[in-house]
Amino acid sequence: xIVIDSSGWMEFFAGSEVGRKLLPFIEKPQELVVPATxxxxxxxxxxxxxxxxxxxxxxxxxxxxxxxxxxxxxxxEAALISAxxxxxxADSIIYATARNHDAEVWTLDAHFKGLPGVVWLEK
Length: 123
Fold this sequence. Notes:
Layout: E1 2-4, H1 6-14, H2 17-20, H3 23-26, E2 33-35, H4 36-49, H5 52-62, E3 66-68, H6 72-85, H7 89-100, E4 104-107, E5 118-120
Parallel strand pairs: 1-4, 2-3, 4-5
Helix pairs in contact: 1-4, 4-5, 6-7
């Protein structure tokens, strides 16, 4: 199981070389865990850069994986992770979601660098 961080999804939707490395996972949605937070971040960014139709298409593709909503318990775990690793809120939610699902986080976001269970994607 993997969680693609918002940075990875943005690279995928931009059609970059790094984004193309994620295609094998995106083509197997049964292996994807998708924190609702990543849908929010990607939708918002694509909406700002392109339009609502493109943002909805992206959200639809992301929703093919197992979408995980933010629950009370996940929020508490994310807050503990944020305090321990000094992660911003969205990143701590993404990381907590991955840990709860025994999934790796695939990312280009420097906040995750060095954390266990993280695969770093370089441009």
